[in-house]
Amino acid sequence: MADEEGRAKLMPPFLSISSTSPVAAGFVALMKSIKSDLPPAEYKRILMETSRSLTYNGEKCPRVPDVYEAVKLISGITE
């Protein structure tokens, strides 16, 4: 996308549930590849525990999963 002067415009991040659901599913798949025997509620707990808030151009998203922190946490569970 470009503005009226031809400069590239930054695209806003995907902050809706419909756009973040596939990303969260990918995070869970990554966690399951490390530790596959946890109940679904445990994967959700890990995602919630390792989430953080994000503000982008004045829009606040209260929970953004941090996959790096989630993988670190789940890796500790497997040790």
Helices and strands in order:
Blueprint: H1 17-34, H2 40-49, E1 52-56, E2 59-64, H3 67-78
Antiparallel strand pairs: 1-2
Helix pairs in contact: 1-3
By helix and strand content, what is the structural category? alpha+beta
Low-confidence region ranges: none
Average pLDDT reading: 81
Strand order of the largest sheet: 1-2
Question: Roughly how many Å is the radius of gyration?
Answer: 16 Å
Characterize the overall form: elongated
Tell me the distance between the termini. 46 Å
| SSE pattern | HHEEH
Number of strands: 2
Main pleated-sheet profile: 2 strands, antiparallel
The residue fraction in helices comes out at: 40-55%
**Content of β-strand:** 5-15%
What does this protein look like?
The chain is an alpha+beta fold and 79 residues long. It is built from three helices and two strands, in the order ααββα. It has helices at 17-34, 40-49, 67-78, and strands at residues 52-56, 59-64. A two-stranded antiparallel sheet has the order 1-2. A hairpin with a 2-residue loop joins strand 1 and strand 2. Helix 1 (17-34) runs parallel beside helix 3 (67-78). The mean pLDDT is 81.
